[in-house]
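Record type: ASSEMBLY
Status: queued
Input:
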Amino acid sequence: MIEQKIYLVEKYIEREFKAGNIPGSVHLSIGQQFYDAKYANFDGWVLGNHRSHGQYIARTDDIEGLLDQVYRGMSQHLYYSGCFLTTGIQGALAGVAVGLASQGESVRCFIGDGTVNQGILWEALGICEGLDVLFIIYDNFYSMSETKKGWLHKKIGFHPNVRYISGVERLCGHSGNDTQAYRLKKIISYCEVRRDLYEKDISKEILNEVNQRIHDFEIRNKRDFTPLT
Amino acid sequence: MTLRSEIKETLRRLLKDDNVILIGESVADPFGGANKVTRGLKGNIIDMPICEQAQVGWAIGAAMTGKTVILEIMFANFLSLCVSQLKDIGEVLGEHHGIKFKVIIRAVTNDNPLYGPNHSGNMRWLLEALGFPIFYAKKGDVDRVFDSAIGNEHNINLIIEEKTNYVR
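Status: finished
Output:
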Protein backbone atom coordinates (compact mmCIF):
# COMPACT_ATOMS: atom_id res chain seq x y z
CA MET A 1 0.00 0.00 0.00
CA ILE A 2 1.22 3.45 -0.93
CA GLU A 3 0.83 4.97 2.53
CA GLN A 4 3.03 2.27 3.97
CA LYS A 5 5.77 3.00 1.45
CA ILE A 6 5.51 6.69 2.27
CA TYR A 7 5.80 5.99 5.98
CA LEU A 8 8.83 3.73 5.57
CA VAL A 9 10.69 6.06 3.23
CA GLU A 10 10.00 9.02 5.50
CA LYS A 11 11.28 7.10 8.52
CA TYR A 12 14.43 6.39 6.56
CA ILE A 13 14.83 10.06 5.61
CA GLU A 14 14.22 11.07 9.20
CA ARG A 15 16.99 8.74 10.35
CA GLU A 16 19.39 10.02 7.71
CA PHE A 17 18.59 13.63 8.53
CA LYS A 18 19.19 13.08 12.25
CA ALA A 19 22.50 11.41 11.38
CA GLY A 20 23.56 14.56 9.54
CA ASN A 21 23.65 12.99 6.10
CA ILE A 22 21.08 15.23 4.43
CA PRO A 23 21.79 18.91 3.78
CA GLY A 24 19.34 21.73 4.30
CA SER A 25 15.98 20.86 5.77
CA VAL A 26 13.36 18.14 5.40
CA HIS A 27 9.66 18.25 6.16
CA LEU A 28 8.21 14.83 6.68
CA SER A 29 4.90 13.49 5.49
CA ILE A 30 4.38 11.16 8.42
CA GLY A 31 0.86 11.80 9.61
CA GLN A 32 -0.48 12.85 6.23
CA GLN A 33 0.50 9.76 4.28
CA PHE A 34 -3.07 8.49 4.02
CA TYR A 35 -4.19 11.68 2.36
CA ASP A 36 -1.15 11.77 0.10
CA ALA A 37 -1.91 8.23 -1.02
CA LYS A 38 -5.53 9.10 -1.61
CA TYR A 39 -5.26 12.44 -3.38
CA ALA A 40 -1.85 12.48 -5.06
CA ASN A 41 -2.20 9.11 -6.70
CA PHE A 42 -3.80 10.19 -9.97
CA ASP A 43 -2.83 10.72 -13.60
CA GLY A 44 -2.50 14.47 -13.86
CA TRP A 45 -0.10 17.09 -12.53
CA VAL A 46 0.62 17.23 -8.82
CA LEU A 47 1.99 20.54 -7.56
CA GLY A 48 3.20 20.46 -3.98
CA ASN A 49 4.96 22.43 -1.32
CA HIS A 50 7.74 22.05 1.21
CA ARG A 51 6.11 18.91 2.67
CA SER A 52 5.51 16.79 -0.39
CA HIS A 53 7.70 13.71 -0.17
CA GLY A 54 4.61 11.57 0.32
CA GLN A 55 2.83 13.14 -2.63
CA TYR A 56 5.92 12.48 -4.77
CA ILE A 57 5.90 8.79 -3.90
CA ALA A 58 2.14 8.53 -4.38
CA ARG A 59 2.31 10.13 -7.82
CA THR A 60 5.52 8.63 -9.20
CA ASP A 61 6.52 5.61 -7.03
CA ASP A 62 10.06 6.92 -7.67
CA ILE A 63 11.70 6.29 -4.30
CA GLU A 64 15.18 6.45 -5.77
CA GLY A 65 14.49 9.78 -7.46
CA LEU A 66 13.12 11.22 -4.23
CA LEU A 67 16.20 10.19 -2.29
CA ASP A 68 18.48 11.54 -4.99
CA GLN A 69 16.84 14.94 -4.78
CA VAL A 70 16.64 14.99 -0.98
CA TYR A 71 20.31 14.12 -0.62
CA ARG A 72 21.09 17.05 -2.93
CA GLY A 73 19.20 19.46 -0.70
CA MET A 74 16.22 19.68 -3.04
CA SER A 75 13.64 18.34 -0.55
CA GLN A 76 11.45 21.39 -1.12
CA HIS A 77 12.09 21.54 -4.87
CA LEU A 78 11.08 18.15 -6.18
CA TYR A 79 10.48 17.52 -9.84
CA TYR A 80 9.43 14.58 -11.95
CA SER A 81 9.21 15.25 -15.63
CA GLY A 82 5.74 15.94 -16.89
CA CYS A 83 3.75 15.40 -13.70
CA PHE A 84 5.22 16.63 -10.43
CA LEU A 85 6.65 19.88 -9.15
CA THR A 86 7.08 21.50 -5.75
CA THR A 87 8.44 24.70 -4.29
CA GLY A 88 9.25 25.92 -0.82
CA ILE A 89 7.64 29.30 -1.54
CA GLN A 90 4.21 28.88 0.03
CA GLY A 91 1.39 29.00 -2.49
CA ALA A 92 3.70 30.01 -5.32
CA LEU A 93 2.57 27.25 -7.66
CA ALA A 94 -1.11 28.21 -7.47
CA GLY A 95 -0.87 30.35 -10.59
CA VAL A 96 1.12 27.69 -12.43
CA ALA A 97 -1.59 25.18 -11.51
CA VAL A 98 -4.23 27.32 -13.16
CA GLY A 99 -2.02 27.89 -16.19
CA LEU A 100 -1.54 24.17 -16.70
CA ALA A 101 -5.25 23.53 -16.27
CA SER A 102 -6.07 26.28 -18.75
CA GLN A 103 -4.38 24.15 -21.41
CA GLY A 104 -6.30 21.02 -20.63
CA GLU A 105 -4.15 19.45 -17.93
CA SER A 106 -5.73 17.91 -14.85
CA VAL A 107 -4.09 19.45 -11.79
CA ARG A 108 -4.08 18.97 -8.03
CA CYS A 109 -2.27 21.63 -6.01
CA PHE A 110 -1.44 20.82 -2.38
CA ILE A 111 -1.27 23.62 0.15
CA GLY A 112 -0.91 23.82 3.91
CA ASP A 113 -3.18 25.69 6.29
CA GLY A 114 -0.60 28.37 6.92
CA THR A 115 -0.56 29.26 3.24
CA VAL A 116 -4.18 30.33 3.11
CA ASN A 117 -3.29 33.96 3.67
CA GLN A 118 -0.98 34.14 0.66
CA GLY A 119 -2.22 36.55 -1.99
CA ILE A 120 -1.15 34.41 -4.92
CA LEU A 121 -3.56 31.69 -3.79
CA TRP A 122 -6.55 34.03 -3.85
CA GLU A 123 -5.47 35.42 -7.18
CA ALA A 124 -5.31 31.94 -8.62
CA LEU A 125 -8.68 30.98 -7.11
CA GLY A 126 -10.14 34.00 -8.86
CA ILE A 127 -9.15 32.78 -12.32
CA CYS A 128 -9.68 29.03 -12.10
CA GLU A 129 -13.42 28.75 -12.60
CA GLY A 130 -14.37 25.89 -14.88
CA LEU A 131 -10.87 24.46 -15.03
CA ASP A 132 -9.81 21.01 -13.91
CA VAL A 133 -7.76 22.19 -10.97
CA LEU A 134 -8.29 21.28 -7.35
CA PHE A 135 -6.58 23.01 -4.45
CA ILE A 136 -6.21 20.59 -1.57
CA ILE A 137 -5.52 22.23 1.76
CA TYR A 138 -4.13 20.15 4.56
CA ASP A 139 -5.01 21.57 7.95
CA ASN A 140 -2.77 19.95 10.50
CA PHE A 141 -3.20 22.80 13.00
CA TYR A 142 0.51 23.38 12.75
CA SER A 143 1.15 26.53 10.75
CA MET A 144 3.57 29.35 11.46
CA SER A 145 0.96 30.87 13.74
CA GLU A 146 -1.28 28.56 15.65
CA THR A 147 -4.67 28.14 14.04
CA LYS A 148 -7.94 27.49 15.79
CA LYS A 149 -9.76 24.38 14.83
CA GLY A 150 -12.46 25.07 12.28
CA TRP A 151 -11.49 28.62 11.29
CA LEU A 152 -9.92 27.51 8.05
CA HIS A 153 -13.10 25.99 6.75
CA LYS A 154 -14.90 29.28 7.18
CA LYS A 155 -12.02 31.20 5.62
CA ILE A 156 -11.59 29.19 2.45
CA GLY A 157 -13.34 25.84 2.69
CA PHE A 158 -16.45 27.27 1.05
CA HIS A 159 -14.67 27.84 -2.28
CA PRO A 160 -15.86 25.41 -4.96
CA ASN A 161 -12.31 24.74 -6.14
CA VAL A 162 -11.00 23.90 -2.70
CA ARG A 163 -11.02 20.52 -1.01
CA TYR A 164 -10.57 21.19 2.66
CA ILE A 165 -9.05 18.32 4.61
CA SER A 166 -9.45 18.89 8.30
CA GLY A 167 -7.90 16.98 11.10
CA VAL A 168 -4.76 15.78 9.37
CA GLU A 169 -3.06 14.22 12.32
CA ARG A 170 -0.62 16.50 14.00
CA LEU A 171 2.27 14.19 13.43
CA CYS A 172 4.12 15.82 10.60
CA GLY A 173 7.80 15.75 11.40
CA HIS A 174 9.51 19.09 11.26
CA SER A 175 13.23 19.35 10.73
CA GLY A 176 15.19 22.32 11.79
CA ASN A 177 17.86 23.94 13.79
CA ASP A 178 18.35 23.76 17.52
CA THR A 179 15.43 26.01 18.33
CA GLN A 180 13.12 23.70 16.48
CA ALA A 181 14.74 20.44 17.52
CA TYR A 182 12.55 20.20 20.59
CA ARG A 183 9.49 20.24 18.38
CA LEU A 184 10.88 17.43 16.28
CA LYS A 185 11.57 15.36 19.37
CA LYS A 186 8.09 15.98 20.71
CA ILE A 187 6.48 15.09 17.42
CA ILE A 188 8.61 12.01 16.93
CA SER A 189 7.70 10.91 20.44
CA TYR A 190 4.07 11.27 19.55
CA CYS A 191 4.74 9.33 16.37
CA GLU A 192 6.28 6.54 18.42
CA VAL A 193 3.28 6.43 20.72
CA ARG A 194 0.91 6.20 17.78
CA ARG A 195 3.17 3.91 15.80
CA ASP A 196 0.74 1.06 16.10
CA LEU A 197 -1.70 2.93 13.90
CA TYR A 198 0.83 3.15 11.11
CA GLU A 199 2.79 -0.03 11.31
CA LYS A 200 0.25 -2.69 11.97
CA ASP A 201 -0.64 -2.98 8.31
CA ILE A 202 2.87 -2.76 6.92
CA SER A 203 3.44 -6.03 5.22
CA LYS A 204 6.79 -7.75 5.07
CA GLU A 205 6.50 -7.58 1.33
CA ILE A 206 6.38 -3.79 1.30
CA LEU A 207 9.11 -3.53 3.92
CA ASN A 208 11.34 -5.76 1.82
CA GLU A 209 10.58 -3.85 -1.35
CA VAL A 210 11.37 -0.47 0.20
CA ASN A 211 14.51 -1.78 1.87
CA GLN A 212 15.72 -3.29 -1.39
CA ARG A 213 15.11 -0.13 -3.37
CA ILE A 214 16.84 2.08 -0.81
CA HIS A 215 19.69 -0.45 -0.58
CA ASP A 216 20.21 -0.36 -4.36
CA PHE A 217 20.15 3.44 -4.34
CA GLU A 218 22.63 3.64 -1.47
CA ILE A 219 25.02 1.14 -3.00
CA ARG A 220 24.93 3.01 -6.30
CA ASN A 221 25.69 6.21 -4.42
CA LYS A 222 28.32 4.53 -2.22
CA ARG A 223 26.70 4.97 1.17
CA ASP A 224 26.35 2.60 4.09
CA PHE A 225 22.88 1.17 4.20
CA THR A 226 20.99 0.09 7.34
CA PRO A 227 17.72 -1.70 6.61
CA LEU A 228 14.47 -0.50 8.06
CA THR A 229 12.93 -2.87 10.57
CA MET B 1 3.10 53.61 -39.05
CA THR B 2 3.42 54.43 -35.37
CA LEU B 3 5.18 52.20 -32.87
CA ARG B 4 1.80 51.17 -31.52
CA SER B 5 0.65 50.10 -34.98
CA GLU B 6 3.87 48.26 -35.63
CA ILE B 7 3.55 46.27 -32.39
CA LYS B 8 -0.06 45.51 -33.18
CA GLU B 9 0.83 44.15 -36.63
CA THR B 10 3.59 41.99 -35.17
CA LEU B 11 1.17 40.58 -32.60
CA ARG B 12 -1.41 40.03 -35.32
CA ARG B 13 1.12 37.93 -37.23
CA LEU B 14 2.14 35.96 -34.15
CA LEU B 15 -1.44 35.28 -33.10
CA LYS B 16 -2.13 33.45 -36.35
CA ASP B 17 -0.32 30.56 -34.66
CA ASP B 18 -2.73 28.68 -32.39
CA ASN B 19 0.12 27.97 -30.00
CA VAL B 20 0.54 31.65 -29.19
CA ILE B 21 -1.56 33.12 -26.39
CA LEU B 22 -1.83 36.77 -25.46
CA ILE B 23 -2.97 37.59 -21.93
CA GLY B 24 -3.25 40.71 -19.87
CA GLU B 25 -5.68 43.05 -18.19
CA SER B 26 -8.48 43.91 -20.60
CA VAL B 27 -6.30 43.17 -23.64
CA ALA B 28 -9.17 41.71 -25.62
CA ASP B 29 -11.73 43.73 -27.55
CA PRO B 30 -13.39 46.08 -27.12
CA PHE B 31 -10.99 47.62 -24.62
CA GLY B 32 -7.82 46.47 -26.35
CA GLY B 33 -5.47 47.05 -23.43
CA ALA B 34 -4.64 50.12 -21.38
CA ASN B 35 -2.57 51.48 -24.26
CA LYS B 36 -4.88 50.22 -27.01
CA VAL B 37 -2.10 48.20 -28.57
CA THR B 38 -4.17 45.03 -28.87
CA ARG B 39 -7.50 46.50 -29.90
CA GLY B 40 -8.93 44.68 -32.90
CA LEU B 41 -6.63 41.69 -32.68
CA LYS B 42 -8.02 38.20 -33.15
CA GLY B 43 -6.73 34.90 -31.87
CA ASN B 44 -6.02 33.32 -28.47
CA ILE B 45 -6.46 36.46 -26.40
CA ILE B 46 -7.48 36.12 -22.77
CA ASP B 47 -8.49 38.90 -20.43
CA MET B 48 -7.15 38.65 -16.91
CA PRO B 49 -8.36 40.40 -13.76
CA ILE B 50 -5.94 42.43 -11.66
CA CYS B 51 -3.65 39.70 -10.40
CA GLU B 52 -0.14 40.18 -11.73
CA GLN B 53 1.39 37.40 -9.66
CA ALA B 54 -1.14 34.86 -10.88
CA GLN B 55 -0.82 36.17 -14.44
CA VAL B 56 2.88 35.29 -14.42
CA GLY B 57 2.18 31.94 -12.78
CA TRP B 58 -0.56 31.24 -15.31
CA ALA B 59 1.77 32.17 -18.14
CA ILE B 60 4.45 29.81 -16.89
CA GLY B 61 1.98 26.97 -16.40
CA ALA B 62 0.44 27.38 -19.85
CA ALA B 63 3.86 27.74 -21.44
CA MET B 64 4.95 24.49 -19.80
CA THR B 65 2.42 22.73 -22.04
CA GLY B 66 4.16 24.04 -25.16
CA LYS B 67 2.43 27.34 -25.74
CA THR B 68 4.16 30.67 -26.29
CA VAL B 69 2.56 33.08 -23.86
CA ILE B 70 2.77 36.84 -24.36
CA LEU B 71 1.83 38.68 -21.18
CA GLU B 72 1.10 42.39 -21.20
CA ILE B 73 1.94 44.23 -17.99
CA MET B 74 0.40 47.63 -18.41
CA PHE B 75 3.05 49.48 -16.45
CA ALA B 76 6.53 48.07 -15.86
CA ASN B 77 6.23 49.34 -12.27
CA PHE B 78 3.89 46.42 -11.61
CA LEU B 79 6.63 43.94 -12.40
CA SER B 80 7.71 44.37 -8.80
CA LEU B 81 4.60 42.40 -7.86
CA CYS B 82 5.79 39.53 -10.02
CA VAL B 83 9.36 39.13 -8.80
CA SER B 84 8.79 35.97 -6.78
CA GLN B 85 6.91 34.23 -9.57
CA LEU B 86 9.58 35.23 -12.09
CA LYS B 87 12.62 34.36 -10.00
CA ASP B 88 11.51 31.70 -7.51
CA ILE B 89 9.40 29.79 -9.98
CA GLY B 90 10.19 30.83 -13.56
CA GLU B 91 13.94 30.96 -13.21
CA VAL B 92 14.14 27.89 -10.95
CA LEU B 93 12.15 25.73 -13.35
CA GLY B 94 14.70 26.39 -16.06
CA GLU B 95 17.93 26.43 -14.07
CA HIS B 96 17.28 23.60 -11.62
CA HIS B 97 14.86 21.35 -13.43
CA GLY B 98 15.79 22.01 -17.06
CA ILE B 99 12.19 22.75 -18.01
CA LYS B 100 11.85 24.61 -21.30
CA PHE B 101 9.04 27.06 -21.89
CA LYS B 102 8.50 30.43 -23.52
CA VAL B 103 7.00 33.47 -21.82
CA ILE B 104 7.31 36.95 -23.31
CA ILE B 105 6.44 39.80 -20.97
CA ARG B 106 5.56 43.07 -22.67
CA ALA B 107 6.07 45.70 -20.01
CA VAL B 108 5.35 49.38 -20.58
CA THR B 109 7.65 52.06 -19.22
CA ASN B 110 6.65 55.70 -19.13
CA ASP B 111 8.95 58.68 -19.44
CA ASN B 112 6.13 61.04 -18.50
CA PRO B 113 6.48 61.78 -14.75
CA LEU B 114 3.06 63.39 -14.64
CA TYR B 115 1.58 59.90 -14.31
CA GLY B 116 2.90 59.80 -10.77
CA PRO B 117 5.47 57.59 -9.00
CA ASN B 118 3.69 54.25 -9.52
CA HIS B 119 2.93 54.68 -13.21
CA SER B 120 6.09 56.21 -14.63
CA GLY B 121 9.82 55.72 -14.81
CA ASN B 122 12.14 53.52 -16.81
CA MET B 123 12.31 50.88 -14.05
CA ARG B 124 15.91 50.18 -14.98
CA TRP B 125 16.73 49.22 -11.39
CA LEU B 126 14.19 46.41 -11.48
CA LEU B 127 14.75 45.25 -15.04
CA GLU B 128 18.47 44.84 -14.46
CA ALA B 129 17.93 43.16 -11.10
CA LEU B 130 15.59 40.59 -12.65
CA GLY B 131 18.38 39.45 -14.93
CA PHE B 132 16.23 38.25 -17.82
CA PRO B 133 16.98 39.16 -21.45
CA ILE B 134 15.61 42.64 -22.15
CA PHE B 135 14.56 43.88 -25.57
CA TYR B 136 13.42 47.39 -26.38
CA ALA B 137 10.66 47.75 -28.96
CA LYS B 138 11.74 50.51 -31.32
CA LYS B 139 10.06 51.70 -34.45
CA GLY B 140 11.22 49.78 -37.48
CA ASP B 141 12.62 46.97 -35.33
CA VAL B 142 9.58 45.40 -33.68
CA ASP B 143 9.41 42.25 -35.79
CA ARG B 144 13.05 41.45 -35.13
CA VAL B 145 12.67 42.11 -31.41
CA PHE B 146 9.72 39.74 -30.99
CA ASP B 147 11.25 37.06 -33.21
CA SER B 148 14.52 37.26 -31.28
CA ALA B 149 12.76 36.97 -27.95
CA ILE B 150 10.70 34.01 -29.11
CA GLY B 151 13.55 32.27 -30.90
CA ASN B 152 16.23 32.44 -28.20
CA GLU B 153 16.89 29.75 -25.62
CA HIS B 154 15.69 31.79 -22.64
CA ASN B 155 12.45 30.79 -20.98
CA ILE B 156 11.46 34.32 -19.95
CA ASN B 157 12.10 37.44 -22.00
CA LEU B 158 11.13 41.04 -21.36
CA ILE B 159 10.11 43.37 -24.18
CA ILE B 160 9.99 46.96 -23.01
CA GLU B 161 7.64 49.35 -24.77
CA GLU B 162 7.98 53.05 -23.97
CA LYS B 163 4.54 54.57 -23.64
CA THR B 164 5.51 58.00 -24.95
CA ASN B 165 6.77 56.38 -28.16
CA TYR B 166 3.50 54.69 -29.03
CA VAL B 167 2.28 57.64 -31.08
CA ARG B 168 5.56 58.30 -32.87
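Annotation: Chain A is about 45% helix and 10% strand.
Annotation: The radius of gyration of chain A is 17 Å.
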